[in-house]
Specification:
CATH class: Alpha Beta
Oligomer: single chain
Bound molecules: 3-iodo-tyrosine
Number of domains: 1
Largest sheet: 4 strands, antiparallel
CATH architecture: 3-Layer(aba) Sandwich
Strand content: 15-25%
CATH superfamily: NADH Oxidase
Radius of gyration: 19 Å
Number of helices: 8
Length: 217
């Protein structure tokens, strides 16, 4: 591996304060959305958001991810049907009473119209390992790596004024089947994206304050 010089821009402390206040204010506006407008979105922008996700750090720089951008209505219909079948079983017994009670306030259920209504889905796959001519090659810290990439993807979508949902219709094996992913890939998250519908509502949540989430030593 070659090593090259790295000298990223340095800001004054005041610029740093300004930039992070601006970013925090912007990020507080990010919300998970389940009600999408049918307005089309510029897919070139979404592809760039995926490129941003692809800049994430990963274990041994293996970049163990694939982002499937799904807009095809036939495929989405199939995904919705399979997702709703799994979610029906989840809501009707696979999820614990405590879990259902925790979710009650968010009014979710097994019906997932956003899979078909949102302008598109980004279905993220993690690579449990890689295949090569010599056989299986290991990846490391795959969940951490893909989780970081997804965080960056959500930040990028928010940066361009798009909204998204992190949807986990577990078990998610049906996604690899429908999208014909190779055997080393496992579905990680389904991320419908788009603009919110005109009458979109979101729960009135509060975020933990800094003194609740930060412990300094
Ligand atoms: N996957 C289900 C259930 C669900 C679970 C959690 I934890 C949530 O924060 C939201 C929903 C669904 O998508 O409805």
């Amino acid at each position: 591996m070659d090593f090259i010089p790295y000298k990223p821009q340095r800001f004054t402390e005041d610029q740093m304060r300004q930039r992070i206040s601006d970013m925090l204010e912007k990020m507080h506006d990010r919300r998970s959305v389940r009600e999408f407008s049918s307005d089309p979105v510029p897919l070139d922008v979404v592809r760039k958001c995926i490129e941003v996700a692809g800049t994430a750090p990963s274990g041994a720089h293996k970049q163990p991810w694939t982002f499937c951008l799904v807009t095809d209505p036939v495929i989405r219909k199939e995904i919705r049907k399979a997702a709703e079948e799994e979610e029906f079983i989840n809501y009707k017994g696979r999820m614990s009473d405590e879990w259902l009670e925790d979710l009650k306030q968010f009014n979710t259920n097994h019906v997932k119209p956003f899979i078909e209504n949102a302008p598109g889905l980004i279905i993220v796959f993690k690579h449990s390992y890689e295949k090569s001519e010599e056989g299986k090659k290991s990846n490391y810290y795959v969940n951490e790596s893909v989780g970081i990439a997804v965080g960056m993807l959500l930040t990028a979508l928010h940066e361009v004024g798009l909204v998204a949902l992190t949807h986990t219709p577990s078990p998610m094996n049906f996604l690899a089947k429908i999208l014909e992913r190779p055997e080393n890939e496992r579905a990680y998250l389904n991320i419908p994206f788009g603009y919110p519908s005109d009458d979109c509502m979101v729960p009135n949540i509060e975020r933990k304050s800094i003194d609740k989430i930060l412990k300094e030593y």
